[in-house]
Protein 1
Amino acid sequence: MESTQKRFAGLAKSSEVQSLSAVTAEEVPRHPTGIDELDRVLGGGLVKGAVVLIGGDPGIGKSTLLLQALAQVGVTRHVLYVSGEESAQQIALRAKRLAVDAASVRLLAEIQLERIAATLATEKPDVVVIDSIQTVYTDTLQSAPGSVAQVRECAAQLTRYAKSHGTTMIIVGHVTKEGALAGPRVLEHIVDSVLYFEGDTHSSFRLIRAIKNRFGAVNELGVFAMTDKGLRGVSNPSALFLSQHEEPVPGSCVMVTQEGTRPLLVEVQALVDDAHSPNPRRLSVGLEQNRLAMLLAVLHRHAGIGCFDQDVFINAVGGVKIAEPAADLAVLLAVVSSMRNRALTEKMVVFGEVGLAGEVRPVQRGQERLKEAAKLGFTKAIVPKANRPKTPIEGMEVIAVERLADAVAQCR
Ligand code: TYD
Ligand code: MG
């Protein structure tokens, strides 16, 4: 793309040392994509010269969402879609299926970085999508497309282009089977924002989470449903991750997690069963595995319930990933419920962090969580003492606990 000496030049022009207060800081203007749930995660919209990385499993909907977004943005701005994954015909077919305005989207099916650069120089787009970085390669390196060296170098060159030309760039990265290797993770530090798709490819719901954002809040969630006309935003997602049980079942506990500005009710499921090996299994999907081992130790030490000879499996329904410790109490009550083979109280929600000393710690925005649960028809809640609402919430009986043992005592 550029000569070897220039390849490693700094991004900023060399400049004098100056006082921070003397630098004029301007609010960056944002260009909404017109897709509300995407704008929400981006922190309001696309920013000129910013580079966004969108990662996710193959087939989760990255190309679909970006084509929908580009078609909308293209109405007012100059947009270019560079695809190394699909042929022009395939993309045209998809655009037809999505019923988007294809006239405004310029398309290039190309994987060689130097040729992409040449097109960027002539087309001068305001917004460009590179789908995906793993297919792009540069002639200056020997290694195959998709290798760590190629992915890094191509992303760095493209980022440099975006910064120097004020182009908004969206780079797609597949999460590879090998995990971190050559996947989007190796690029996180280069780009301005990192968004990840989450969700179970078998269910129709998709979440997009910002895990890094130089221009907005992180941990904001965008929620979509995959339909036959592409991805549709879900503006009121709080009840999506509850499974519908006719009767309350053992091992199920509903928690309220607060992701970004919206509370979300998620069903946590546990299965505790006799282990048939000297090393019982601890497996967790959507929740932290190491934390599960720790929580089980706390359960034994501070509530007298041991599961040394039991396998313990934990799952957050719907492919959601919950990182916040507010899930602790729900995880443990689900475990206790499965172990005793007795369902928890119907229409009950639980949240709270559990400490190593067996204490139940408060979580942020407890009131909002409770109100959302009440709105969805839940009538009982077990929460940390400090999260007890100051004014009662209509239709909701709140049990505030200080210790794990108090919460376990509430279970049947
Ligand atoms: P895609 O955007 O190609 O995924 P990625 O770019 O992340 O690899 O999504 C492909 C999946 O989405 C595919 O399994 C079919 C499904 N899909 C729909 O259900 N409806 C649609 O309108 C489209 C375009 C795709
Ligand atoms: Mg794709």
Protein 2
Amino acid sequence: MEKITVIVPCYNEQEALHYYYEEMSRVMNEMKEVGFELLFINDGSKDKTLEVIKELASKDERVKYISFSRNFGKESAMYAGFENSTGDYVCLMDADLQDPPRLLPEMFKAIKEEGYDSAATRRVTRKGEPPIRSFFARMFYKIMNKISDTELMDGARDYRLMTRQFVNSLLEMKEYNRFSKGLFGWVGYQTKWIEFENVERVAGETKWSFWKLLLYAIDGVVAFSTAPLAIASVVGMLMLLVAFIFIIFIIVRTLIFNDPTSGWPSLVCIITLIGGIQIFCVGIVGEYLSKIYLETKNRPVYIVKEDNLK
Ligand code: UDP
Ligand code: MG
């Protein structure tokens, strides 16, 4: 019988896990045509998450887990899941039930019967989310799709079911700075999009502060576009052009109209403006440089402390 590996990244999810397992069991019982493996990735949780997973594993032999030596982030957890998955199909799902397991039969059908390579989900509403966060999220997708060749779907979740071939392609990308939303699109293949209404998490708290999301967005831009570097060059050239025109203007005014000095306010404005633009552009270059630095170190994406894989 074919098997689906369900990868569940968990960071401080002790409350949510029971609900998750209950709900997931129901779906697994429904889907009799395929076998399951639940691969929990404990991403350095500080609460009793690992104990809860072990308890589940002792009751259900389909439950497998990998426990990291510290918190490495969801991207690392997903990668560890892909590397250690053994199923013919691989599914990625959050532990907080914001990715409804009830969609799984429909996703499986899309791959099995309709011939897609992957079935992904996107939420069409952002109910229960602070409006300011939704606004910036929308902006991010708009800008990203303008400046990058890889298409990002607005509202796309990481929740998706993939064929083995799709996952193997993802594993080919061994980069350290992982931005999965982009990688999913980059590998290509045929993806079916399944839409659903946003669900709020069942228990616990979100791990994403506004600040973390902003840094994640910058990571995404740096990983999938070099447009900011080009923009920096263009801004530099424009400033140069303006400076030339201004210099000629001052020379002409001094020589012809005999009006050599006036106004330090304009001087201060120009110095601060150009200073600001310079630092901003150096910052952009720095973002790319720091990513190159991290990639060249070639550190592992995650470190496993314990697991029950074999
Ligand atoms: N997660 C993780 N490592 C982290 C942060 C989050 O494995 O450092 C997991 C978390 O346990 C959950 C999923 O990633 O299963 C999504 O996290 P969360 O619900 O906090 O994000 P949100 O749904 O609010 O975007
Ligand atoms: Mg969540």
